[in-house]
Amino acid sequence: MMTDRNGLIRLIFDRLHGFFGPQNWWPADTPFEVIVGAILTQNTSWKNVARAVANLRDHGLLSFEALCAVPEPLLAELIRSSGYYNQKARKLKAFCRHVCETGHAGLDGFLAQDTDTLRSELLRIRGVGPETADSIVLYAAHKPSFVVDTYTHRVFSRHGWVQESPSYDELRGFFMDCLEPDVGLFQELHALLVRTGHLFCRKTPRCGGCPLEGLRAGTAAG
């Protein structure tokens, strides 16, 4: 039986999908490229990440084996456009070392773990927080773990659907507890919320013309 929360999320999805159309996010050719992008996108825009990823591709470094072998100082220079490039180079190398040292059958074996085990292991890697871990689980491993980001928080708190300052796990649980574990739905809904936040639910909101305009807690859905 569909809960009220489930119905709300489905309504939000239908409105956003009808307005924006399918997003087909994450833009990457391989699971490893997703992982690289998920780490590089911390504290920067996707435009800057795309430049760094393209630079790695041009140098033949968009594979797990190649990135394991490249010296960290060179890696840092190649991802300079992503910002905090020394820290992010360390994070990428830490991810590679973890996969190599934990006895998995390479990257494929690492990603083949069940959802909860994979997420827990990712969170033990230096520099991988909850949002990055869930991005890797959902988009690289194609397992159902909802990704919460600034835009998700902003859209849902401003409309009164969640408390003003929920923790990451509380907001993630809002979705995980009431939706079926559907990877395609999770991916599309996350991408649609990002698009909404980027265009309308900014730091200074642009509510006029937003597909969610008028849909607030306590108002009639329509």
UniProtKB/TrEMBL annotation:
Listed EC numbers: 3.2.2.-
SMART domains membership: ENDO3c
Domain HhH-GPD: 40-199
InterPro entries on file: DNA_glycosylase, HhH-GPD_domain, HhH_base_excis_C
Coiled-coil residues: none
Domain of life: Bacteria
SUPFAM superfamilies membership: DNA-glycosylase (SSF48150)
This protein's record includes keyword Hydrolase: yes
One of the GO BP terms on file: base-excision repair
Alphabetized UniProt keyword annotations: 4Fe-4S, Glycosidase, Hydrolase, Iron, Iron-sulfur, Metal-binding
One Gene Ontology term of the molecular function aspect: 4 iron, 4 sulfur cluster binding
Family matches, as PANTHER family: A/G-SPECIFIC ADENINE GLYCOSYLASE/ENDONUCLEASE III, DNA REPAIR GLYCOSYLASE MJ1434-RELATED
Protein's name in the database: DNA-3-methyladenine glycosylase III
Species of provenance: Syntrophobacter fumaroxidans (strain DSM 10017 / MPOB)
High-level lineage: Bacteria, Pseudomonadati, Thermodesulfobacteriota, Syntrophobacteria, Syntrophobacterales
